[in-house]
Amino acid sequence: MPRIKWSFCVKSLVFVSLLSWYFVLRPKTEQISAEIKFFLNRFSSSVPVPNPSWSNVLQLTREPRFWEVFSGTEVSPVQGCSLPKLDPWHPDILQYVSSVPQISCRGNQESLLYTSRNFLYKNQTAVKNLGLKSEDVSCTYSYLRYIDTDTYKIMSDLVLNGERAKLLPEHTAVLTSCHLSKWNWIYLLLPKKLFRLFGFEIYRNMLSYVPEIKDTKVRDNQDEFSVFTLIFDSVSQMNSFRSLPRTLRVMEDAGGVVFKGHHKVGHNTYPNVMALLSGENGGVWPPDIPDRQGMYYFDVERQPLISKLFQKYGYLTFNLEDMQLYGSLTRVGRVGFKNNPFQINYRAMYWAIDQSYPDLRNNLVGKFGAYACQQEKMAHTYQFRTIEDFLSMYKNHLYHAHVHLSEYVHNDVNMAKHYDKDLSGMLERLIVAGSLNKTFVFLLSDHGYQRAEGHFVQTEQGGIENNMPFLIVLPPSEFQDERKLKNLRQNSDKLTSHFDINQTLRDILRMASPAADEDLRNLEGHGVSFFNTLHYNRTCKQADIPADYCSCVDGITKIPPNHESVADVVSAILIDREESLLPLGVCQPLKLRGVKDAWLKVDQDLKMLKLQFQIEAKFAEFEAVLKEENGEVSVRLTRQDLYSETGSCIPQDKEYLRPYCICR
Fold this sequence. Notes:
Blueprint: H1 6-25, H2 32-42, H3 55-61, H4 66-71, E1 113-116, E2 119-122, H5 124-129, E3 137-148, E4 151-154, E5 158-159, E6 164-166, E7 173-180, H6 184-189, H7 192-197, E8 201-208, E9 226-232, H8 237-243, H9 245-253, E10 257-258, E11 261-263, H10 269-277, E12 296-297, H11 298-301, H12 306-312, E13 316-321, E14 335-336, E15 344-345, H13 347-355, E16 361-364, E17 371-374, E18 377-378, H14 379-393, E19 399-405, H15 417-432, E20 439-444, H16 460-467, E21 471-474, H17 482-491, E22 495-497, H18 498-512, H19 516-521, E23 556-559, H20 564-581, E24 592-603, E25 606-615, E26 621-629, E27 632-639
Parallel strand pairs: 9-19, 9-20, 11-22, 12-14, 13-15, 13-19
Antiparallel strand pairs: 1-2, 2-6, 3-4, 3-5, 3-7, 7-8, 10-21, 16-17, 17-18, 20-21, 23-24, 24-25, 25-26, 26-27
C-alpha cells in the first residue's frame, strides 16, 4: 500500500482552505472582525444591563437657575414656526460637497441577459460583442421563491431556449448564468461553484422582473388614483437641490410641488417609515426593547400598513427596497412580517444577494454594508428599469407602489447625484407616455444625511438638513379637485411631516373607496392631509414633530461650545451612560474629548439642550438631547458615526447597547 506523503496532505489542505476562503470569506472580508467577536460573545452568559438612571444629569437640572445659565436672557415663547433660511451651497458645507463621485463597476462580463417587464431576454448585441453567435451561448435561470421575511429558496435551473422566456407571476427575480455551448457537457458534470471557479461561466447575475398579475383592479371612476412613493434614504431638501436638479426640474415642469418645510419625526429610518406607511408613532425599534424574546411581526403586533388597506380595497401592492441587511422594517430573526406585506415584493432578491451572493456586488460605498454596483452595472440601472416597467404595465390599474433606495446614499452625502440623470429620464418618459396621469407621485427621503464620519452633519447647516428631508409631490394630471389642489400647493410653504403624507394617502384611499373610512377611523393617526388647510402658524408640537427634530428657528439660542456648564452636562451624561454599561465588563470609559456645538430651545413648557460632542475612545461622535417638558426630564443619547465595528463585542441580545459601548 503506497504511503501518503505529508506534502500532498498539506497541499490538499491549503487548496481546500483557499476554496473555502474564495466562496465563503472573500465576499465578506469587511465583516470578518465583527463576526469573530460576535461568535465569541454569543456563548457567554447574558449579563443584565440596567437602563441609565441619569441620576447625575437629574441632579444638575435640580440646581437653581439651571436653564437660565445657558440662556442668559429671557427667551420669548414660540408663537409659530419660522423655517430656517438655508443655502444649498453654504460655505460651511462646501468642503463636504463634491461633484458626481467616480464609480467604475467591475467590467469582466458582458450583459448577456436582461429583463423587460415579465420576460427574460438574451442580449444579441452583447453576444456579438464577444464575437459569438446566439447558438454559441447557453444560459440558465432559476427563480427565487419568497418563503417568509428571512427565508428564500433558489429553485431548480431552467434552460433559456431561444431568445427569450416568459417569467412566472409567482416570483420577482431570477438567478442567471451563461457559458459557451461547447462546455455544456462539463456544465452537466461539475458542481456550479467549481464550474465557475474554473472559468467556464461567462455571465452571472440576479435580475428582477415585474410579474404579470391577473385580475388586478382597473381604474373605472374619476375618483380612483394610484400611489407611487419613492424614498431616497438620507437626502435632505438642500441636498436634493445639489444632487437631483434635473429630477426636480422634470417634476416641477409637470406640476410637481416642492415642500419647503418638510420634517422628519424620528431619528432614523424606522420611525419615519412607520409614520408614512402606518401613521403611528413608531416607538422603540423592536430589537432594542430590553429582554424581548422571539420574532416581532409588524402585521401581528401593530395596526395595518397603508399598503395592506390599499390591497384590501383592490389595489395591487409593490415594494422594492435594496439595502436589506438593514431593511426599514426587517431584521433577520428579530423583526419582519408573518405574511408577505406586498403582492409584488423584492425582499427575497436583495436578501439573497446580501446573504448568499455578495460577490454579485462591488464598489463599497462608505465603510460597511452598501455597494454601488451589481456586477458590470450600477445597481440603480436595474432598479429603475423594474420601476419603469411596473408603472408602465399597470398604468391603467390601481396600485400602491413603495420603493426605498439606500445603497448609494446611506453612507455618502454626494452619491445621490448618480440617480439624477437616469431618474429624470425615467420620469420624463413616464410622463410623456401618460403612465402617471392617474398616479400621485411622492419623491422624498426619510431624513437628511446623518453619518458623522465626514463631519458634514456636525456643521450647523448639516444638523438642520438632517431634520429636513426633501419632498416633492406630483399630482396626477387627471386629478381635477381644485380645492384639494389649491391646499396642496399652499401647504408646501408650511411646516409638514411624514404623518401628513400618511393622512394624504388615507384620503386618496377614501376617494377611491369610501367604505375604507370605517377601517381608517379606528387607527392611530397624526398630522393633517395635504388636501386640507394647514394653519399658517403651525408649530412642531401641533404637527407632532418631536422637539428633538424641530428646525424651526423660534426660541433657539446658540451656546458657545466651551461654556463651562455645557461640559458639566456632557460629562454627567457620559458618567450615567458608562455606569449602566459596567456590568458588561467589555467597554472602554466614556471620556469627553470636546464639545462641537450646543443649542438651547425654549418654548412655553419646554426647555431643551442639544449637544454634539466627541469622546476619547475611537473619537466616537455623539449627539445628546436633554429635555425638560411639563416638569419631566429626559435624555436621548445618539451615536452619529458608524458603530458596527466599535460595538461588535456586545452580544446580539444586547444589540441596542452597541452604539454606546466602545469595545476594549
